[in-house]
Design brief:
alpha+beta, 3 domains, flat, about 300 residues, eight-stranded mixed sheet, Endonuclease, Chain A, three-stranded antiparallel sheet
């Protein structure tokens, strides 16, 4: 039985209430008997010398609420104890784990499932920081799947720095997913130029694609190689811009400016249409260029028109 009454139970309970709050079981249709039994089991119908009467749902809500809070407390306590309970197994795993491949400095992963599993292990074992360079569009489903693990990483004090390309944050669902992480301390920057996908864990292990379709990956642990990849990431990070304003909705005037640009109006025509100075419109256009990663006004108009078609 679920915590809440089902549709049939609700319908029968409402019928009883509308009928004065009393029910004679012999008047029940056979199809209503399962719902009747469920209402009795929940305590929403109580017996009287002459039949059954409706009981207050508030009492049920208070009782179930108390039970759910107790259950949640037990689950939280179990979650707190679980790492210690698994610690001996983790130590045994670490003692026999072979992080290196046959060539002594790499592990080759084949298939998305294998890649996700290995990355999940690296995130779980991370103690200090994760560096992530994520070019191209971000799949929302993947972000949702990784959310719990990313938040756990941040809550245990690790840092998370991620590079995106501006186009990745055009999707509002992606923006919300990224914002859930930045509110917990993750840092995000945008770089409007090509770069390669890269994940680095504690500056000890780096994951890079090993196939164009990203169906294969390689885990590198050679200190010199990892340090070289970290240096590339830090170089790109220094050139990138903070993504804070991308995670907030644009100003309504900025949105209106964008819509007029997408229709092909010039900066001067937009200013005239909205009754603004060209300088003010230029400021809104600058924000739009940052948000969309556009290099020129023509590039911005092209991207905005593409967004309207989507």
């Amino acid at each position: 039985m679920t915590d809440e009454p089902g549709q049939a139970e609700r319908a029968l309970y409402l019928a009883v209430v509308r009928g004065g709050g009393r029910l004679c079981p012999e008047h029940l249709a056979p199809a209503d008997r399962p719902a009747f039994a469920a209402l009795v089991a929940r305590g929403l119908l109580t017996t009287t010398p002459t039949g059954w009467t409706a009981a207050s749902p508030r009492a049920l809500g208070d009782r179930l609420g108390s039970e759910l809070r107790s259950r949640a407390t037990r689950l939280l306590q179990h979650a707190e104890r679980l790492p210690d309970a698994l610690a001996p197994l983790a130590l045994a795993y670490d003692a026999v784990r072979r992080p290196h491949g046959p060539d002594g400095d790499a592990v080759h992963l084949d298939g998305n499932a294998d890649i996700r599993q290995h990355i999940s292990e690296l995130v779980s074992e991370c103690q200090e920081e994760v560096l992530a360079a994520q070019p191209g569009p971000r799949p929302v489903d993947g972000l949702r799947m990784a959310l719990a693990q990313d938040l756990s990483l941040l809550r245990r004090g690790c840092s998370l720095r991620t590079l995106y390309q501006p186009a990745a944050l055009v999707d509002h669902t992606v923006q919300r997913q990224v914002a859930l992480r930045t509110r917990q301390g993750a840092r995000v920057r945008l770089l409007a130029e090509p770069y390669e996908r890269l994940l680095v864990f504690d500056r000890k292990a780096a994951v890079i694609p090993a196939a164009e379709d990203r169906s294969r990956a390689t885990v590198l642990t050679d200190p010199a190689v990892v340090a070289h990849l970290v240096a590339h990431f830090e170089r790109d990070w220094a050139r990138a811009t903070p993504a804070d304003h991308h995670l907030d909705p644009p100003h309504p005037t900025t949105v209106r400016v964008g819509r007029l640009l997408a229709r092909g109006l010039t900066q001067r025509a937009v200013a005239t249409r909205l009754g603004l100075s060209e300088r003010t419109v230029a400021a809104h256009i600058s924000r739009l260029r940052d948000r969309h990663g556009a290099r020129t006004l023509f590039h911005l108009g092209w991207r905005l028109r593409g967004e309207r078609r989507d």
